[in-house]
Amino acid sequence: MASLYVVATPIGNLGDVSERALAALRDSSVIFAEDTRVTGKLTAHFGIRVSVRRYNEHAPDAAFRETRERLKRGENVALVSDSGTPGISDPGVKLVAFVAREAPNAKIVPIPGPSAAVAALSVSGMPANEFTFLGFPPAKRKRKAFFARVAVADARPVVIYEAPHRIAKTLGELAEAVGEDVPVFVARELTKMYEEHLRGTLGEVKKLLAEREKARGEFVIVVA
Ligand code: SAM
Questions:
Q1: Of 85, 111, 137, which marks where a domain is finished?
Q2: Which ligand 1 atom minimizes the distance to the CA of 189?
C-alpha cells in the first residue's frame, strides 16, 4: 500500500536526522516541502535525488491532486516542513487531512523526530508531565486574548513560538498578562552553533533581550 510519510527533519543540526527519515525520503517519488531551498540542502547533503516540490498553505490544488494520484498509483509521497515535525505550527496538516479524506487506502506514516517545542521543554528544567502548547501569538489583532490564555493555562508550563523581530514585544506583553516575576525559559537557536538558554523571571529575560541591538535567530518561550 502506498504511504504518505510525514517526516520530521532537523531544527538546525543535520546530525539530528533519523535513519528512518532518510529512508522514507529516499523511498518517495516526490517530497513536498514548505521551503524547497531548506529541504534541498538536506537532500543534497544526504545525496537524496528525489524531486523536492513546494507545498505550503497557499499550495495550489494541484499539489493535493498530485499527491492523491501518486498514492493511487502506488507511489509513496513524503511531506516535510521547513524544520521539525510537520503539522506543529506549520501548514503540513492540510495535506495530511486531505490524504486521510481523499486517499483512504493510503497509509499515513509518522516519522517522528525533532520539534522545537519538545526540545525546549526538555532543557527548560520545568516539569512537563503536563504542558500547554500555544504556538505563535497572533501578529496583530487578538494578542491580548492570546496572552490572557497563558495566565489561565491550567496545564503548565506554556510553550510559545516566536520570531526574532517580535520576541521583545511578546515578552513585554506576556509580563503584562502574567506578571514580571513569573519564571521563564527562552531557548534561542536550539541545536545550532549559537544555541543559547535564557533563564530568569519574565522581567529579567525581557530586559536582557531588550539590551541587545537586535534579536536574531529562532525562539521558543516556556513560561512556568
Ligand atoms: N514544525 C516545527 C517544529 O516541530 O518545531 C515548528 C515550525 S514553526 C513555523 C517555526 C518556529 O519554531 C520558529 O519561529 C521558532 O519559534 C521555533 N523553532 C524552530 N526551530 C528552532 C530552533 N532551532 N531553536 C528555537 N526555536 C526554533
A1: 111
A2: 24
